[in-house]
Structures are given as structure tokens and as C-alpha cells.
Amino acid sequence: MAARIDKVVTSGTFSLDGGTWDVDNNVWIVGDDAQVIIIDPAHDVDAIEEAVGDREVMGILLTHGHDDHIRAVTAAQDRFSAPVFLHAADRMLWDAVFPDEEPDDVIEDGDTFEIAGVTLETLHTPGHSPGSVCFYAPELGTLFSGDTLFSGGPGATGRSYSDFGTIIDSIRERLLTLPAETVVNTGHGDSTSIGAEAPHLQEWIDRGH
Fold this sequence. Notes:
Blueprint: E1 4-16, E2 19-31, E3 35-39, H1 45-52, E4 56-61, H2 67-70, H3 73-80, E5 84-87, H4 91-97, E6 105-107, E7 112-115, E8 118-124, E9 133-137, E10 142-146, E11 149-150, E12 153-154, H5 164-175, E13 183-186, E14 192-193, H6 194-197, H7 201-207
Parallel strand pairs: 3-4, 4-5, 5-6, 10-13
Antiparallel strand pairs: 1-2, 2-3, 7-8, 8-9, 9-10, 11-12, 13-14
């Protein structure tokens, strides 16, 4: 059974620094017909469960701790009986949503997660948030970039705990060094590729976002 990637788009809100915005989130499900890993189970656990079907969920990986990505995660944890992983540097974002609960484990740079014969390698890519991570699956030629890299540029850095210079360094040093043909599956919006985004790095630096 070959590994495959399923995508579910869910809708909800994102709140930070006193503002709230409507957002659509990409939920990524990686695995085969028997077992899967879920990346960022946002907003709508019923829709995610429909996509998972009767497959066993081996883990729930969080690219970062913003509330649109994590607010539904404890419901997903209960529904799928799967452990939740988050980078420790985003714990303050988690605690703002779940002050009385903890992730099951921490994600660190270089950690690997195995599913359906595929390895997901953790790349710590701070900037959008201190604990932002991406997951690279070389066997699938795919990067799950969370909110670090999008079609058209880096993730937003205008709010608390974010920094533009840091996200540029993360993208330059950790992501644009990947093979050009690598597909980039983002946390919101359309997928892209490393090769499509790499030529525009200086433009992003010049515009400042």
C-alpha cells in the first residue's frame, strides 16, 4: 500500500492580539489504507474524520501553535485517540487556548515520524511563530510548510511572537535548500514548489513581508 496525501479544507477563525479573522485551513493527512498521520487538524473534526475513514491515526503533528491550527486539536485527540506533538517554543500559544491541558510530546528539529513507509523529517523554521516547524517527506517529494512558506511568500510576521528577519532566515537556510521540484503543501491556500518560490526571495526581503 503506497503512501498518499489527502487534503481537507476547513473553515473557522483565527484570533490573536485582540483581532479575529475568518480563515480557511488546509489539513493534511499522510498515510496508506491502514494508518495515517494528521498535520494541523483545524476547525472541523467531523470533516477530518470523514477523510480519515476507518484508518488508524498514529499521531497529530502541529506546525505551530496559532489558535486556528490548534483549537480543534483536543477534540481530534479524543476522536482519534492519537498523541499530539508541538514544538516547545510555541507552548505559550497553546497555553492561551488550553491553559489546563498539555500536548502529549514536544517536537524538536530533526525529529522523524514514520508512516506507511514514508519518513516525515521535522525542520524547525521559526519566524511566523517561535516554534513553527515544517515536515519534509523526501520519499513523497513534499514539504508541509504550515504557515512558514506560501505561494507568493513567507507567512505573516506582523503580530506577537513573530519576526520577519527570522522567517526569511528559516526559509533561506532550511527550505530553499530543498530540491527545486519539492511540492510545498501550505497551511492555507494553494500548494506551490520550492523552485517556484526560490527566485523571489529578494523581492520578499525588499518589500518587508
